[in-house]
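>> received
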Amino acid sequence: MSAPAAASMPLDDAVPAPGALLSVRDLRTVFPTRRGIVQAVDGVDLDVMPGEALGVVGESGSGKSVTFLSVLGLIRPPGTVTAETLRFEGFDLMRLSATERRRLRGRAMALTMQDALSALNPAFTVGTQIMEGLLTHGIVANARAAREEAVALMGRVGIPSAAARVDEYPHQFSGGMRQRIMIAIALAARPRLLIADEPTTALDVTIRAQVLDLIDDLRQSEGMALVLITHDLGVVAERTERLAVMYAGQIVETGPTAAVLAAPRHPYTRGLLASLPRLDAPDSPIQAIPGQVPDLTRLPPGCRFRERCPLAVAACAEPVLLAPVGPDRAARCIRTEALAS
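>> returned
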């Protein structure tokens, strides 16, 4: 399924893409520290269309998770979030009260965390934790109905003997089963948007494929949109229609996943691809990206990748905007012609 063209093009103003489920313009998230202000998210623009799968990739610390925690209203003080536009299904999220935001979160937008073992409460059974969302959002009328629905959800995500295991605790489940429990909790209210933050962390290859297949199946059956946050370019290549690449708090490239991976238009995206082992040339050396990610409290002027970039020129010291580089594509780079040749 291909994503609508409007979803992948950056906009110069704050007008959401027509029909967008989620629209974000100029999102900024900062954290004060003893060393200075950390600019974790700096001017992010993106849209998520109904039913689509958006992949978000980048190194640790690039701002992937913080971007969507900001969207969900899960950034705690002293962290602060500002945005020119932050809308979900027509709701202006920046104008909602904390109570209104909480009602929307979980009910319409849901999150699965990276580490299911730490995200699940070890003091409560998995059934109790699934039931909590069902009762909080009024999905069912009483505890008995909540328990029945919890068993059904566990069965739906592939937990065997769900009726017998609903009263077990997180430590009694394997890593893959705990991740399935997390997905059951996230899907309890049938959200329109699922944000899956590294859903396959610490899982072996077989279990990882099962979890991703489960998310795909549920997305198709429920018609929900998916944001898949991951380090794994192989996963986004197989599972998403559109891709956003983040570096040092900014989106540096976006477009249809296949097109971006086949012909990257930003040196950072190209560097990520070059750092992967190749099946067609298993003896070829892996080309690591030189240098270090910049200190988010002391960001360099201009392009944030320029100190690691083999194509950098003097003009890269000036601010660089995310600009169109072809149909449905954009990149934050003034040297895109060098990559296209």
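>> Residues 22-108+192-278+285-340 form a domain with the Rossmann fold fold (CATH 3.40.50.300).
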